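Two folds, back to back.
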Amino acid sequence: MPCALCLLHRTHSLAVSCQLGYIKITKQITLYIVNASLPRKIIPILTGLSLLAIIGVVYPQPTVAQRQSTQNPSNATGTYTLGGGDNIRVDIFDLPQLSGNYQIPAGGVIQLPLIGSISIQGLTLEEATTAISNAYAPVLKRPQITVSLQATRPLNIWISGEVNRPGSYSIPLSSGAGNVPSVQFPTLVQAIERAQGVTQIADIRRVELRRRAGGVGEPQVLTFDLWKYLQTGTVSADITLRDGDAIFIPTAAAMNLAEARQIAISTLAPASNQARTVAVVGEVIRPGRYVVVGGDTLSAQSVQGLPTVTRAIQLAGGLKAQADIRQVQVRRPTSAGSEQIFSVNLWQLLESGDVNQDTILQDGDTIIIPTATEINPAEISAIADASFSPAKIQLNVVGEIVRPGLVEVPTNTTLNQALMAAGGFNSSRAKKSSVELLRLNFDGTVSRRIIQLDFTQGINEQTNPLVRNKDIIVVRRSATAGVVDTVNLILNPTAALLAVPSTGNALLSLLNNLGLIRLPK
């Protein structure tokens, strides 16, 4: 004859194996108990216990861990490891007096009732639960313990390599809305944005993330292709970060102008309105150091734009006539302390509209405009009309000219054109076969050339060269005019002494006194 314990065991098996209605299950239980020939007084008690067993199997009560995960869905799981600054809660089932909230100190050791000190530094929530359960096992019978994360510490991240502001960053975790807000861990891209973006020579195809498992041991190196992330939106490359992660952005082996421009207009790069200090040297009007920002430097109106090579050239006064815009060189410092040198072809920008040639600058760049070995007359007008050429240059035309003095002419004006801009020769007194060209050099010297004029020639360095800013053109008087002036001086010396010289002739006299030219006596 079956005992009561056997009946309960059989009832439990019945609940698990059979899908019966509530009334049918109750009748079956009562039938088993009656057949057991037990006292009638305990039949209702056994029936109730059996039903409780069935309900416990079919509809089990949630554990503390299950209740906690329902109340706080933001608990970090997986690879998140605990450390100093985290706030956790330790729940011991049926022992609320031993449960409580704890803030993990810097060393990762917390003090728990009955067991004292226990280290959970570098452990996941699951590992911490196991460690605390094992510690309570000698003092509690089958301890049921749940560890949950209440508030996370800021993540300390190190970023180095080709970023605009390398260094250590403390990034707090952002929380969402609601009574129990979720927690958003920072990602790889967000950390790079905090470091003010990558430089123009960053190799974003090989971004390295170095992570130590549990904060100890040799770091694991993970490589991510952020170029693929930009092109296709592959979010798997934008990994969430953990405390202690180190990000390294390597230097690209070579400069790709098209890719550099796409990176520069993305959130991986600094804002376009951020100022960059660069140097511009070579064949520009005012070589030196300049602060370049987006917008048109020739306009007072603030407009959107990118800090490019042509904007820097505009700030430097524009190109000189001898500039070689096909071989403009950019020298860019790297994070390792060396330089990466590459060339841009601004003629390609003018000819085909290749905007990639007008590369976006970064802080510390040096732009070098070389001197052209040969000037193509067909390209002169196109370069003169470009936005990065100066609108006007100034030079002095003195001597026997109709309007001697300061003359303002367009960029890339020839000698013949400059003479015409000054009104042309004084026909009765000028020596029309040649003029003298004085040029102030950058080394402080003055070069002097006699140019044999030929108005039928185009741009020609021998007979019709391009004039430069601050050039002085001296038109001498003819031999006949010299004889007439000498005779007049002899016949009327007082009138010659009282005559007020014109501006051009005054400059001519000054040059004669300095020994730069020799006027006939």
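---
second:
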Amino acid sequence: MSDHQERIVEIRQRLQAGELAQAREQLNEALAEHPDEADLAVLSVLCLEAEGAAASARTEVARLLEQFPQHAPTAFHAGRLALADGQTDLAESHLQTVLALDPNHAAARTLLARIKQRAGDQAGAIELLRTALRADADHVPALIALSTLLLASQDVAEARELAARAVSLRPEDVPAQIAMAMAFKAEGHEEFARQCLRNALEKMPGEPRLEKALAALDAAPDESAANPTIIQQASDAMLRNDFAAAERLLGEADPEAPATRLAMGRLRLQQGRLGEAEASLKPLLAQAEFEHQHDAARLLADCKLASDDHSGALAVLLPLVNHPRLPLDTSLYFARLQHSNGLSKEAVERLDTLLEGHEGEAQARIHNMIARIADEAGDIEKAARHIDAGQCRPPLLVNELNVISPPGLQRAWLEVQDWPFNDVADGPLPVLIAGWPGSGREMLVSALSGSDELTMMPPNELGRRRQLFNLPSWPERVLGLDPAMARRQARRYRQNMPSDRPLLDTGWYEPVALPALCRALPGLTVINPVAREEYLRLQWRLSGCRDIGRMLEVWQAEQSLFEHLRGLLPIRVIDVELKGLLSDPKAALEPVASALSIQLTESMFERLESIKGQLGQRAPDHWRAYQTAG
């Protein structure tokens, strides 16, 4: 290890030990010698965070993302900070970028598992954590998280084994000690659990999390009836749509406890029993704890929206909007409600005042919301003034394509001028949907997914399918593939799928993936949404993407490759104009239905309209308004 690398390790160790002044001094010296060193720059973010300058840390990481777009540690800490702020979509985008750059990044997979867990996908979270541990068997956060999830699914033996490993690797890690205690408790060894926590408290006297865990173990049964484990289990059951299990679990909890009321309100909301949901939640609005008031008000607002009562949703949140601890997400939610109630001017005025109290990425999110509301309200001049300052998201697909579709691979396929295979597929062929976000792809996916005459390939198995075709694949591998192997790929692709109708594969495949797919499945169909560059530019700007110029450059290269491949490969391409999808979807989809021999149904059009509204797709020529606005 070089002296420079040793110094980076020492700075990181000082930060972990809480020696902030010494870490900052060493870091400043190192930065003076290596001002463009990405690893040092990330340490400056960690220093700011440790010093309590959270807002400055977020500003700095946003700057570093632009300076070092291909640096996995920068993207990881951007994702970590976004997740801490509750910006789940943004966090997931950053973390996927990390994995595109470093597929063995255990910490990124662990945080993605946390996102999946919060979304109710326990199986997906467990799989991600197992993958993280295959990449790094000693990653303590993954060990703890997997232990906790396995305990919830009653796999106590493995949970204890994982917790014990975490404790052996990091004896003074508080969550590890608590996970060990919970595993002992689940095995019926409560005294072992208590002793585990007492031993940890001897080493870390006064540690509040350990004291709270010990108090929970020592609590009388009636005092722990509403313990977080029951509530969490009920929440997990709700996210699996297992309402009966959630009902049973909540029946064991204290019905008057705020956590129980919140969980019951959420359950009734999911069941569509809105009156009962409101009855459970309304008493919490009078609670002294702001967090309880806030969480209840958010759920009550959702209840009102579920019954299409936008003014009622606005009224529920109104008493809280000036609270100093109101989360930014709720402020933005409130602004959207004002806009939907015809109070767009008031929403924008309030957002304008919020700009002064935020900086960095948070401020960019506010600019973005102002631009979107002003745009939808028809105030193009106002939207134009905020649209570029609202760049709060990484550029879409750019970082991912740097890994799965590198320029060298694109050039290699552009040089292939002959496809010597005339095989005919002997089974059902897939229908793929091309296109970038904003191009109409999402509407096509939603509409076609509603057809009973197509068999949908499991979306969560896209990774398996990509692995099956060895993506990304270079020309020599695809062109030299043994025909028997290609047939085996086709059989495994269609595994367990019906043989009497087309297969709808909604996974996103980049153009360089098409030759490998076509080698095994010649004659496959690609539905290709066609959108104007100007339209896409505006959609991406309004969605808050950074580096639009780079996005367009990558998109254009992808389009050029697709045009080359459609002339080379034995594939059927059906072009669908975005303009037609937006203005006359029936006419736009008729050629698709005819080619696939399926019927268009009202439910398909309803799904298309619904997703169009959710995505905020603008009118076909809306982009022209910004040509004069600047």
